Amino acid sequence: MEIAQSTDDLHLQKSREYADKALKIAGKLQSKNGTAEALLLQARIEKNERKFNEALEIFKSLKQPMEIAKACYYYGRALGKPDRIREARDIFGRLGARGWIERIDSADA
Fold it and tell me: Per DSSP, which regions of the chain are E strands?
């Protein structure tokens, strides 16, 4: 059990390192989309509401509904926010993203 715990901790640490690197690279490239993607990755790893909101604001400013929907979905799942999952489902519905709708519906069943 101790080995499994330390392996999980190592994977989490590595995930955080890679997400931090992605954010730094996106900043150097001045990529708003890359920054939002890296923030979303960090938010998912850390379950960080502030970072979810930052990523969402960037995706909204870039007018990227698919990315907004994905961010809402991951936000809702990570932090137990059903209103965010409903928001994601509504956006996916308007976009005709049936696979995502099925994913949400099957997880809620």
Answer: none
